[in-house]
Amino acid sequence: MRIISPREFVDVVLMKQFEDGTMLSAATNVEHPLCPPQPNFVRGFNYPCGCFCIPLPGEPDRTQLLSFFQTDLGGYLPQTVVDSFFPASIAGFYSNLTKAVKALKA
Predict the structure, then answer these.
(1) Full-model pTM
(2) Which residues form the START domain (predicted)?
(3) Which ranges in the chain belong to alpha helices (H)?
């Protein structure tokens, strides 16, 4: 038996690029009959969230980032576990986002 159960999330994601080069990624939790809760997983919940990657005029190698996220991990997790997990998780997210934006701009 695990002390901490794995989490799963089911989100719908919209990605859009605007004429000025701004990129949007927006998501929210959904329930879908093809994605029922799985045994041995705790279903987490993402409230409406996303990020804007906004080009900085005159600085092609820089991007302004506006992001907003609110996640309910579901189940019971001690605050110490959340505090130790989230910094690495968020750092990984922004690292992957940097790679994705560079790939899309190429």
Answers:
(1) 0.77
(2) 1-106
(3) 79-105
